Amino acid sequence: MDKKNAEYSAAIVGGGASGMLAALCLADAGVKDVLILERNDRLGRKLSATGNGQGNVTNADMGAEHYFSSDAEKVGKILGAFGKEELLRYLTSLGGYFTADDEGRVYPASRQAASVTDILRFALGARGVCVRTGECVLSAKKQNGAFAVRTDKGTYRARFLLIAAGGKASPHFGSDGNGYMLAKGFGHSVTELSPALVQLKTERECIRGLKGMRVCCGARLIRGGKELYACRGDVIFTDYGVSGNAVFKISSRAREGDVLSLDFLPECDQNELAAILRRKAAAFASLPSEDLLRCIVNSAAARAVMRSLEIGADKRCGALAGLAEEISARVKDFRVKIEGSAGFENAQVTKGGIPLSETDEHLMSQKERGLFFAGEILDVDGECGGYNLQWAFSSGARCAKRMSELLYADR
Predict the structure, then answer these.
(1) For range 101-115, the mean pLDDT
(2) 178 in helix, strand or coil?
(3) With 60 as the cut, is the pLDDT of residue 402 above it?
(4) What single string gives the DSSP state of each residue in 36-67?
(5) 3-17, 43-57, 83-97: which range is least confident on average?
(6) DSSP secondary structure string for all residues of 75-134
(7) To 10 degrees, what angle do helices 17-28 and 113-126 make?
């Protein structure tokens, strides 16, 4: 079926990960008249860029504890119904092959995110799903028992409507928050929105000279003297702050005024490091102060540590033996004040959205029967490492299962 004004069993707003998988699950259940409306000129643009273009689709360590949401129990049930095993079986059945790295991140063996989009797209074509790209949905409302979905090119009717239009993150991929407007039209609310999995802006003086440095270190988020979160991973210094997977993990919790504490040497105990520095100061007393940390931490980081302690370059190592504890403490706890984030334009996902409390256990609206939500538009966001794509796929599958059940129950 491919005609304007025709009535479909299900219309899906958004041709991303959740929308495509929902359409495939509906088709696999025998629902032949499924429509996808995608504003971009092709499906899965954001999916094709995920995992730095390598396609990190899920994680071996999957569970609700890796997500931020108003209803962790509901998230857990949805992940339990269609989790990483079900996802990988399904993607493998479409012709893909997937492997996990040593951190549990699961990628296609091709290491090309676009190839994941391709196998989904091939399957949609093989199953006869109607896909209309380059159409922006302007409004949706319930009329005479069916949803009337108006785009900039026409109007479509469907018995069920799934809004899987994403959030506000990465608007260059077409996710500008339009889905929230559609949801509000049905009486839904939207929680406070903020960028997540995003670079952080920090005070600049303390990171002067570190631009371009990448270091695997421990990272802690501190607010009011209390540690809120800790992790370990890459931190990349920029001219405005910090990036890297450790920063992305922290960004979902961070806000302006918080402190980022970095441990440049997580493999070494602070007392052990202090002892090393005392011995080195005695053995190489005439070396410049910055050489005390040579071959221990990155040279640029060493200079930043010394500068933060107001230890000048004119100092010699021999004069620093009495400061070994202070220097080692700063290496293990280098603090940077957070001044904000790089915004939705650079974020991978949106924190916040339509409250899960406004949906039932199948993610159908509590306000309008037959209306469903999947993916980033809901108030669910995950940690860095494939969790957000897993949620997109899991929630799309959940909606499709319920829609197909209701369709066949009515027949």
Answers:
(1) 96
(2) helix
(3) yes
(4) EEESSSSTTTTGGGTTTTT---EESS--GGGE
(5) 3-17
(6) HHHHHHHS-HHHHHHHHHHTT--EEE-TTSEEEETT--HHHHHHHHHHHHHHTT-EEEES
(7) 30
